[in-house]
């Protein structure tokens, strides 16, 4: 059986290191916002190339804290509109709504699955104050053009980088001398949120998240907000929350961060094999320029008769998943948005299938998936 993603195998690789670190952690006697979180924040900021990083309880809280901090600072006002791709994971939308802001769903580009710049331009009004990009499936959005647009219209750019740890911007979009070239996800807008949910490219063994930014005022505000509104024990400047990253999860992340680049390269190698060796025209393969700007959190194909395809692969002992079966605007929780018609997004949700993809997949497993698909 070829698993979609074998989390046990992924983490088993670090068993000895985890055990050694746990012994130190136990003996430290310091279990909240201690040296593990501090080390992770320094190292992850360095990794992303940003000045600041703050660990958070999870990815949803990381996104929400960014919006709440901008509201706290008066840079956003309640009811302001935030554009975001209509085909995203539900949590991206929740962060906007829970912050008292209004989501504007923008259709994606068909080839990259990422937010369409043309549609942003078409739907831009003075009510829109921010764009949330989601580097969906691990591929960076068209940041150069989005940032230019944002600068022109004085909009905030927030990255939902929950699927794109380690993705590097390149010249794919043919704009030379861009200051973004060689910058990583997390350093491509005003602020970014990451999730370390176990299945992400950098995954904890439980919940975790982080915010990266170069903005010291935003950083200081979020630092308070995630810790009851306080940066000094028993003194509260803001009405904050408990949204801290746990020490134990930071400990796991400190071990695993060292292996993130190698794991992403493994994913890119598998993606390249899928792209070169899958030869049937019954499925459509994803766009990939061969660079580091896609870290293949997911390898997503589209197929018209999805049910057949999925059950065919299942019979061949190959597990697949669907990311995602129902778009946010069609969810029961968002009844006031259910009337929206977003045909590109809806078609994507009806046809996508995610193939097995992980840094612990063997060459033989990849070959087996390719062979099965080619005889579909
Ligand atoms: C995983 C994910 C989130 C939410 O992260 P959690 O840590 O599960 O809260 C948000 N946005 C995207 C795109 C994600 O993939």
Automatic annotation (TrEMBL):
GO biological process per UniProt: polysaccharide biosynthetic process
TM helices/strands, residue ranges: none
N6-(pyridoxal phosphate)lysine modifications at: 200
Alphabetized GO MF terms: pyridoxal phosphate binding; transaminase activity
Keyword Chaperone: no
Origin: domain of life: Bacteria
Keywords attached to this entry: Aminotransferase, Pyridoxal phosphate, Transferase
Active-site positions on this chain: 200 (proton acceptor)
Recorded family membership: Belongs to the DegT/DnrJ/EryC1 family.
Cross-referenced PANTHER family: 3-OXO-GLUCOSE-6-PHOSPHATE:GLUTAMATE AMINOTRANSFERASE (PTHR30244:SF36), TRANSAMINASE (PTHR30244)
Name used for this protein in its record: Aminotransferase
């Amino acid at each position: 059986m070829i698993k979609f993603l074998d989390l046990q195998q992924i983490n088993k690789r670090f068993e000895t290191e985890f055990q050694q670190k746990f012994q130190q952690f136990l003996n430290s006697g310091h279990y909240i916002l201690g040296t593990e979180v501090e080390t992770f924040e320094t190292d992850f900021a360095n990794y992303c190339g940003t000045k600041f990083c703050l660990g958070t309880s999870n990815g949803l809280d990381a996104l929400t804290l960014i919006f709440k901090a901008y509201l706290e600072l008066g840079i956003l006002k309640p009811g302001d509109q935030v554009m975001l791709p209509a085909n995203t994971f539900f949590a991206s939308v929740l962060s906007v709504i829970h912050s008292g802001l209004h989501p504007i769903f923008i259709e994606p580009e068909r080839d990259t699955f990422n937010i369409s710049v043309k549609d942003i331009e078409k739907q831009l009004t003075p009510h829109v104050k921010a764009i949330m990009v989601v580097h969906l499936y691990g591929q960076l959005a068209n940041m150069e053009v989005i940032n230019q647009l944002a600068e022109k219209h004085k909009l905030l750019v927030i990255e939902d980088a929950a699927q794109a740890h380690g993705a590097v911007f390149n010249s794919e979009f043919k704009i030379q001398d861009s200051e973004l070239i060689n910058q990583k996800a997390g350093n491509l807008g005003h602020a970014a949120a990451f999730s370390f949910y176990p299945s992400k490219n950098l995954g904890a063994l439980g919940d975790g998240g982080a915010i990266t930014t170069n903005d010291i005022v935003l950083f200081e505000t979020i630092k308070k907000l995630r810790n009851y509104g306080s940066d000094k024990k028993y003194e509260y400047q803001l009405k904050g929350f408990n949204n801290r990253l746990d020490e134990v999860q930071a400990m796991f992340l400190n071990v695993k961060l060292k292996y993130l680049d190698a794991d992403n390269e493994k994913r890119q190698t598998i993606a390249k094999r899928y792209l070169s060796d899958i030869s049937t025209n019954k499925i459509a393969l994803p766009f990939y320029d061969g660079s580091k700007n896609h870290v293949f959190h997911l390898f997503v194909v589209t197929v018209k008769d999805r049910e057949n395809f999925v059950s065919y692969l299942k019979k061949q002992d190959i597990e697949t998943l669907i990311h995602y079966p129902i778009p946010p605007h069609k969810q029961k929780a968002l009844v006031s948005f259910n009337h929206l018609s977003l045909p590109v997004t809806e078609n994507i949700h009806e046809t996508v299938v995610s193939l097995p993809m992980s840094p612990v997949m063997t060459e033989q497993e990849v070959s087996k998936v390719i062979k099965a698909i080619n005889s579909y």
